[in-house]
Amino acid sequence: MLGGLLGLGGRRILGGSLSVGSVQSGLNGSFEAAGGTTVHARWKFKKGATKCRQKGNVKGKGLGVKIKDNQFVKPGESIYLQRGLKRLPGLGAGVARNQSIYAVQAGIVRYRRLEKGRKVGRVQITVEDAPESHPKMMEYKKRLDAIAEKLEKRRIALEKSRVRRSIVSEHSKTMCIHLKKMAFDAVARGGAVGSRRTWL
Fold first, then answer.
1. Which helix (H) or strand (E) holds 165?
2. What are the UniProt keywords, alphabetically (predicted)?
3. Closest CA to 123 of 107, 111, 131
4. How many domains does the chain divide into?
5. CA 137, CA 145: separation in Å to the nearest integer?
6. Is residue 58 part of a domain?
7. Would you give the distance in Å from CA 136 to the centre of its chain?
8. Do both 30 and 17 map to the same domain?
9. Residue 27 domain boundaries
10. Same domain, yes or no, for 113 and 136?
């Protein structure tokens, strides 16, 4: 059977049979057919390609607690990253588009387990108002005051520039009206507009 499947130069060799000795000799690169003909075979030497997806080190999603209990948080900061509402938002907290919980106001983060209602046993995250004497709250308010002062200075400078522009525009309007009046007077006197005799 093997003799009928072997090929030489792209052609099949029909007929013939192989013995055990011929198979053993074929392992060395040659076969002996029934008619005494020696057939040389060439075995492949390159290993076939295998599927290999080189994923490497995949970066984690970074889910979980970002700000712990009794810690200070500023508005907009993420408190708990999640997929699905494993933790529920309470007062002072909001839910993002990816179900993560963030702070709506500045304050202290509180984690508490619900004891009433349909969602008993679920953890709820709230943001309580921080006392005025809290060091981070004082620093946060100081920064807000600095930003407000900078915005006020910018507003005053912009108002001054607007006043200056209005003065310049009024002056230019007055000059245009004056020049137009002089031109009309010159035309009324019969002079040519733009000549030296007109502007004297």
1. helix 135-189
2. Ribonucleoprotein, Ribosomal protein
3. 111
4. 3
5. 12
6. no
7. 30
8. yes
9. 2-40
10. no
Does the predicted TM-score (pTM) go above 0.90? Answer: no
Among left, alpha and beta (phi > 0; psi -120 to 50; other), residue 44 is: beta
Is 47 domain-assigned? no
CATH number of residue 120's parent domain: 2.40.50.100
Which H/E stretch holds residue 4? helix 2-5
For every one of its 200 residues, what pLDDT tens digit does the chain have, with 9 covering 90 and above?
444 444 444 444 444 444 444 444 444 456 666 666 776 666 666 666 666 666 677 888 999 999 999 999 999 999 999 999 999 999 999 999 999 999 999 999 999 999 988 889 999 999 999 998 999 999 999 999 999 999 999 888 888 887 777 777 777 777 777 777 777 777 676 655 554 444 43
Give the Cα separation of 144 and 98 in Å (integer). Answer: 29
Same domain, 124 and 71: yes
For 122, the token pair is: 């679920």
Check residue 20 and give its pLDDT. 43
163 touches 157 (CB < 8 A): no
Looking from the CA of 108 toward its CB, the CA atoms found within 13 Å total: 12
34 lies in the same domain as 93: no
Residues 136, 113: one domain? Answer: no
> Which amino acid, one-letter code, is at 80?
Y
Helix (H) or strand (E) holding 171: helix 135-189
Residue 73's beta-bridge partner residues?
107
